[in-house]
Each structure stands twice: as C-alpha cells, then as structure tokens.
Specification:
By secondary structure, this protein is of the alpha+beta class. The protein has helices at residues 30-38, 41-44, 81-86, 88-91; strands at 2-12, 16-25, 49-60, 63-67, 69-70, 75-76. It has a 4-stranded antiparallel β-sheet. The longest helix is centred in the middle third of the chain and has 9 residues, at 30-38.
Length: 97
C-alpha cells in the first residue's frame, strides 16, 4: 500500500533530535496536512518543531520504503526515514543519544 508521510523534528533535553513521522492517505496534500498539524496543541506544546522531509511510503510484507518528494512542501525524502518509521515503536524517533 502506498501512503504519504511528513517527518517532523524537535529537540528534546536541549540536545537530542527526535523525529516524528506522520503517515496519511496519498489523496491528501502534504502542505495541507502539515498546516493542520502545526496548529494542534500537541505540536505547539512540545516546543519548536520543524519539517525535515516528506515523500511517499510503500508498506508491504517486505517492510517499509520511503521515496520521492513533496511538491507542495518542496522537500525530499531522506534515506533514514524508512528506518525511523519502522523503528518508531521501539526507538521513539531517536536514532542517536
């Protein structure tokens, strides 16, 4: 199945980057989803949050693959995005400490 995604980033404990992936149906525009999410209290309350990448995600029995780019946000996918999304339940978006 193909979806779209946006990768947000915030800094926790003043030095640790945390990536927060949001996956959504491909029929929605990246920029519309990003605009709405940035207005939510959950994003406002955690401090400065920025969008670092966006694109498409293919989810299959073989795993997760992120690719492409967002025309509306003018951002590309990053090679580490697949790993971040696949491991988010264990690593909470933190790849280094």
């Amino acid at each position: 199945m193909e979806f779209k995604y946006i990768m947000f980033e915030r800094i926790i404990d003043d030095c640790i980057p945390q990536k927060i992936p949001v996956v959504f149906p491909k029929e929605l525009a990246h920029s519309n989803v990003a605009d709405r999410l940035m207005l939510m209290p959950e994003f406002i309350d955690v401090g400065p949050t920025r969008i670092v990448s966006a694109g498409f995600i293919q989810i299959s029995f073989n795993g997760i693959s992120c690719y492409g780019s967002s025309e509306s946000l003018k951002l590309d996918s990053n090679k580490e995005d697949s790993l971040i999304i696949a491991s988010f339940d264990r690593l909470n978006g933190i790849l280094e400490a």
